[in-house]
């Protein structure tokens, strides 16, 4: 793999959405995400590839003249969380381009296409993996209209504003799909292993909780006459943590990531608070138990404090088990490199989880330093990205040799 070219590509993309204090902010359907897509399209065209987009703005990169052929699809996303890192998502898109550049340079005949999905992060609109979800049918117009930023704009409105027509297209021509991503945890980093073959992806259930108390003067209102929404929120936050700890042995986690306090003034008893809760895991029953514990705690806290709490499920997805055929081919390809790797589950959600119900899907992790991600300090090795790209190319070659043109749907593991 051409590591020097990879470094040049990262240097090209690094200034887009860069913050003076470090990190990048490239929200879904923002000017910064647009720039990422345009710059990546320019990179693709400079190495002789063609570029197109679909009804949600997802970008597909093809070998010229082969845009409609069945293909091995590889990719990830280009948006980021606020103050995020340079590798989350981007590493997977550039790894796909590395694979295609090597195929073209070597004159190989492998039908590979790259994809960059829109709106993978949920930080702006509260809905994750929207671009991949729209074209695989798991995200519909109602979901998009329901997902709103703090400004009130819906994700559907944002797509229409950009000139897209969500719901008018579906994923086509993909034989299978692979995504390379930084792990976003510390398992590979601590083990000093450069590769992880992903077996399953945890799914999030996300709740919005509106706590309605009473807004009062902080000096003139005695403690026993208060209906402090923020104190109720504190109880709910701790109850959420406790529910997650109860299910730790099943690898389930629970986090309150958002707390919007009204009026958020020093001399006012908070009248209302909006919380957003993220519960995720790889076992459906454990997720269900955790959600139930949180919901019961919310009801009990509201009753004990004499205020009201309204809970809404923003999104709920099932954990995804990746295709055995893809796991096997990636593991065999990784073994062929002679470097250590492990099979592991992903605690974070990815575009791959939306594609998996539609076509056989595999995923490869590379380590990130100290497991840090969604953070300006996020860092990963370009050599690891190049190694991951090489493993994906080898796995495609393995599947291509084992699968006849007439029967490309037969699982690799059964051949």
The fourth-level CATH homologous superfamily of the largest domain is Zn peptidases
* CATH topology category name of the largest domain: Aminopeptidase
Helical residues, percent:
25-40%
Largest sheet: 9 strands, mixed
Q: What does this protein structure show overall?
A:
The protein is α/β, with parallel strands linked by helices. The chain has 2 domains: 3-202 and 319-414, 3-Layer(aba) Sandwich (Aminopeptidase); 203-316, 2-Layer Sandwich (Alpha-Beta Plaits), CATH 3.30.70. The protein is 36% helix and 23% strand. It has helices spanning 3-13, 31-46, 90-106, 130-136, 141-146, 155-161, 187-191, 229-246, 284-305, 324-337, 351-355, 382-402; strands spanning 50-53, 59-62, 71-77, 112-117, 174-182, 195-201, 203-212, 216-217, 253-262, 268-269, 272-281, 308-316, 320-321, 341-346, 361-366. The strands form 3 sheets. Strands 1, 2, 3, 4, 5, 6, 13, 14 and 15 form a 9-stranded mixed sheet that branches. Strand 3, helix 3 and strand 4 form a beta-alpha-beta unit. It is elongated, with a radius of gyration of 23 Å.
């Amino acid at each position: 793999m051409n590591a020097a070219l990879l470094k040049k590509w990262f240097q090209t993309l690094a200034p887009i959405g860069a913050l003076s204090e470090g990190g990048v902010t490239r929200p879904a359907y923002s000017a910064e995400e647009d720039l990422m897509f345009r710059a990546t399209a320019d990179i693709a065209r400079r190495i002789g590839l063609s570029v197109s987009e679909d009804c949600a703005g997802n970008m597909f990169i093809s070998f010229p003249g082969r845009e409609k052929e069945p293909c091995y699809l590889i990719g990830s996303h280009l948006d980021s969380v606020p103050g995020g890192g340079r590798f989350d998502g981007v590493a997977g898109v550039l790894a796909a381009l590395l694979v295609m550049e090597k195929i073209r340079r070597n004159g190989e005949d492998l039908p590979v296409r790259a994809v960059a999905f829109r709106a993978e992060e949920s930080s702006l609109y509260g809905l994750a993996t929207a671009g991949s979800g729209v074209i695989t049918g798991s995200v519909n117009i109602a979901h998009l209209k329901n997902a709103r930023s703090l400004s009130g704009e819906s994700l559907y409105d944002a797509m229409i504003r950009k000139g897209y027509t969500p719901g008018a297209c579906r994923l086509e021509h993909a034989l299978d799909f692979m995504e390379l991503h930084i792990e976003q945890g510390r398992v590979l980093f601590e083990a000093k292993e450069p590769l992880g073959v992903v077996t399953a992806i945890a799914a999030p259930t996300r709740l919005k909780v509106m706590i309605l108390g009473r807004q009062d003067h902080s000096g003139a209102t005695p403690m026993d006459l208060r209906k402090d929404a923020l104190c109720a929120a504190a109880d709910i936050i701790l109850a959420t943590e406790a529910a997650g700890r109860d299910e730790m042995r099943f690898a389930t986690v629970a986090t309150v990531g958002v707390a919007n306090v009204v009026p958020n003034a020093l001399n006012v008893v908070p009248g209302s608070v909006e919380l957003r809760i993220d519960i995720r895991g790889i076992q459906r029953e454990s997720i269900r138990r955790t959600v139930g514990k949180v919901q019961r705690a919310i009801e009990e806290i509201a009753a004990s404090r004499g205020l009201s709490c309204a809970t809404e499920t923003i999104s709920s997805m099932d954990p995804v088990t990746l295709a055995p055929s893809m796991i096997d081919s990636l593991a065999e390809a990784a073994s062929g490199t002679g470097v250590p790797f492990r099979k592991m589950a992903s605690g974070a959600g990815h575009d791959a989880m939306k594609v998996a119900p539609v076509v056989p899907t595999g995923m490869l992790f590379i380590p990130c330093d100290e497991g840090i991600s969604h953070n300006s300090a996020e860092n990963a090795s370009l050599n690891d990205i190049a190694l991951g790209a090489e493993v994906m190319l080898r796995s495609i070659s393995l599947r291509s040799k084992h699968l006849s043109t007439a029967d490309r749907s037969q699982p690799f593991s059964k051949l």
